Amino acid sequence: MSNPVTIIMIEDDEGHARLIERNIRRSGVNNEIKPFTNGTAALDYLFGKDGTGLDHKGNALLILLDLNLPDTTGIDILKRVKENKYLKATPVVVLTTTDDSQEIKRCYELGCNVYITKPVNYESFANAIRQLGLFFSVIQVPPAAT
Amino acid sequence: MLVAISVTSVLLVNKARDASGLVVHTVEVESQLSNLLLEIRRAESATRAYLLTSAPQFLAEYETAAANILPAADQLAKITSDNPVQVQNYAKLRAAIEHRLTEFARGIDRIKNNDVATSVKVLREGTATGAVRAIAEAGRDMRAEEDRLFALRTQAADRAQVLASSVTIAGSGLVIALAGFSVFLVRRSSRARDEAETKLRDNNLNLEAAIDERTADLREANDEIQRFAYIVSHDLRSPLVNIMGFTSELEELRSDIFRRIATLSREQSDSPLVPENATDTAEPLLEGADKQLSEDFTEALGFIKSSIGKMDRLISAILNLTREGRREFQPVRIDTRELMEGIVSTVAHQVAEAQANILIGELPQIVSDRLALEQIFSNLIDNALKYLKTGVPGEITVRGRTKLGFAIFELSDNGRGIDPKDHRRIFELFRRAGTQDKPGQGIGLAHVRALVRRLGGTMSVASELHQGSTFTITLPINWSAKRNTEKR
Cβ neighbours of residue B133 under 8 Å, at least 6 residues apart? Predict the structure, then answer.
């Protein structure tokens, strides 16, 4: 990525997080990856202490989001990110096990940019993540709150 | 009871009439007796008058009276023949009368011969001899007897009448009481019926409410199960991704490790170094114990991966089933024969491979969900093709008929058949039966049965091992979505 984009990875399963990180690295993406294992911590980081998201003004972020989280649903996080005036331009990639068509539709309606179902087959999984990494390396990410 | 009373009443009335008849009879006897005595007196007085005057008209009178006496006596005898006392009395009377009559006749004869003195004497003798007295006595006796009988019979008649009338009154009273009682009973039963009707109506309403409640409960429970299955299968997937992922990572590590081992052992034995970059993907050459280790490692990983694959297929199957369970059915008119032909054309390749032949008979038109029907029949036809007897040309027939608002479909094959003890098992999820030489998850029939049930139908199997199988599916001809949406 041209500018220093931080990848925010919200994934409660540490194993998944590790596999995702490894495969992204294998595709040659060396950006900082900030892992969060629950929704609350991720929201605290994203919206800052005042809850406005002002902290990230001018930062370029990319969010990797799992929908099944222990404390909140990924849908809520997606909704709040897309409703925040500083963060709404941030690309959100939903990466989850759910392949329910209703869920997918809902995510896109809420402004998710990419929806990927985690394949159980590791070949496909690794492949998908590597392609995602390749995608990250060409994507243009706007800084927050332009 | 009433019949008994009526019969008694009739009997009593008859008895009363008989009693009255007897009373009348007694009166008759008395009058006859009086008549007889009167005639005797007439004869006597006529005799006397003739004796005094010798006038011929008295003679004529005497003769008439005398002629009347015996028939009158006979008459009396006839009507008193039923009473032994009277018969005895009558005998006495008769004897006296006959005696008297002879005396009269003698008296008259004397007079005719102008022997008045003798005649008077005869008559006087007669009076003195007691024939008159006997007549009077017998007459009195008879009268007394008849009086006694009269009193007795009058009493009996009265009693009989009183009895008859009281029985009749009692009967009438009873009839009135019974009528009143039955009116009361009818009233009471109609009131009870009204109450029961009201109760029934209430109960029906309650029942409907209860059914609605239960249905809602069941629906909720069913939804709960669906959700549960969905969530469970979903959440099981997540760790599976890790297991699979890190197994693959281990596999990568394994090749790295054994490459290192190979390099190291070669270094030790001073064999030529294999250039690392050139053999990145190639298997490193290993020897002896190292080779064995590597193979064991590969075997273990292989089992882990195949198990994960199987588990993944099962989870996917459950997910698909729950998804099917949540799909809304759309009832449309379906020409099932056309549908069946469509299914058969999609399996034409397998049919040719199995040297099988599918015969489709006349099939009814029904209103149902098209996709569900396709899944039901294609699963069954798939099964039929899959489990044919090896080396025997397959023969699969599809027949249909309608009965009482239901369409009945029969799919028969000449395949390997199913042992009757497995007939239940084959409809269970993840269960299979018979020789396990074909791939499968044990889902098809469970899925088919679930669909048939949701469409308001039933299915059953008739089969013997090596004798082929017949699957029978009964579906409502007019399945309405209304009932469906009501349920959901």
Answer: none
Chain B residues with CB inside 8 Å of A98's CB? 234
Instruction: Identify the closest residue of chain B to A127 by CA–CA distance.
Output: B245
Query: Å from A83 to nearest chain B CA?
Result: 29
Same structural domain for residues B310 and B424?
no
How many separate domains does chain B show? 3
pLDDT tens sequence across A6-54 = 889 999 888 889 888 888 888 888 888 999 998 888 988 888 877 787 7
Measured between beta carbons, the chain B residues lying within 8 angstroms of A118 are: 237, 241
Residues B377 and B316 placed together within one structural domain of the fold: no
Is B198 a member of any domain?
no
**CB-based burial, B353-368: b 16+ in 10 Å, e otherwise:** ebebebebeebbebbb
Residue B323 and residue A100: Cβ atoms within 8 Å? yes
Q: Are residues B94 and B119 in the same domain?
A: yes
> Band of the pLDDT at B473, cuts 50, 70, 90?
very high
Among candidate residues B152, B180, B208, the one where a domain is terminated: B180
Q: Are residues B57 and B123 in the same domain?
A: yes
User: What's the token pair of residue B430?
Assistant: 């993840």
Q: Please indicate, yes or no, whether residues B10 and B80 belong to a single structural domain of this protein.
A: yes
pLDDT at residue B446 is higher than 70: yes
Answer whether A19 sits within 8 Å of B234, measured CB to CB: no
Task: Identify which has the larger pLDDT, A28 or B176.
Answer: B176
Can you tell me the ipTM of this complex? 0.72
Q: Roughly what angle, to the nearest 10 degrees, separates helices B131-268 and A122-138?
A: 60
Residues ≥6 apart with Cβ < 8 Å to B70 = B97, B101
- Do residue B336 and residue B454 come from a single domain? yes
Query: What secondary structure letter does DSSP report for B113?
Result: T
Q: How many CB atoms lie within 10 A of CB B334?
A: 18
Query: Which residues in chain A have Cβ-Cβ distances shorter than 8 Å to B234?
Result: 68, 97-98
Q: Provide the residue range defining the domain that includes B148.
A: 2-180
The residue out of B323, B340, B356 marking a domain boundary is B323
Does B422 fall in a domain?
A: yes
- Chain B CB contacts of A37 below 8 Å: none
Average per-residue pLDDT for chain A: 84
B57 pLDDT more than 60: yes
Q: Do B311 and B355 have their domain in common?
A: no
Q: Is the pLDDT of residue B283 over 70?
A: no
CB-based contact A19 B237, cutoff 8 Å: no
Please report which confidence band the pLDDT of residue B128 belongs to, taking 50, 70 and 90 as the band edges. Answer: low
Q: Could you tell me which residues are beta bridge partners of residue B367?
A: B333, B478
